[in-house]
Design a protein that fits this description.
- With 128 residues, the chain is mainly α.
- It has one domain.
- The protein has 3 helices and no strands.
- The chain has helices at 2-102, 108-117, 119-126.
- α1 crosses α2.
- The protein is rod-shaped, with a radius of gyration of 48 Å.
């Protein structure tokens, strides 16, 4: 009976040792898997951040180009408007100069003469 107990004890020790080795291997595999997963997540996060940075730079460049084009077009439109206003002011000054030549006494015949001297006024008189 002592031999049976010794055999049983050896069998328990062997089984316990095998279970410990299996648990150690499983823990190592699990730890290696977690380490690889952490590396993969870190690489994916870094790639994602790089991609987002590139996308933001591209969007920023597009926005800057759009704003530059908008400012240029607004500037051209403003220049055209100022040019037209300047021309209109010059025509008005010409008309005022013609009126001041006539003096304080304006008769219908003098008024017609003033308008015939001013090209735009003449065109306005000829319109129906």
């Amino acid at each position: 009976m002592a031999d049976a107990l010794i055999k049983l004890h050896k069998s328990l020790v062997s089984t316990n040792q095998q279970a410990n080795e299996a648990l150690s291997r499983a823990a190592k595999v699990s730890n290696d898997g977690l380490s690889q997963l952490q590396k993969d997540i870190s690489i994916a996060r870094q790639r994602s951040q790089e991609s987002m940075a590139k996308d933001m730079e591209a969007s920023s460049s597009k926005a800057q180009a759009f704003i530059a084009t908008l400012v240029e077009k607004l500037s051209l439109a403003l220049q055209k408007s100022v040019g037209k206003m300047s021309s209109t002011v010059k025509d008005a000054e010409s008309g005022v100069a013609s009126l001041s030549k006539v003096g304080n006494r304006i008769h219908v015949t003098d008024f017609v003469l003033i308008f015939t001297e001013c090209p735009k006024c003449k065109r306005n008189l000829q319109r129906p």
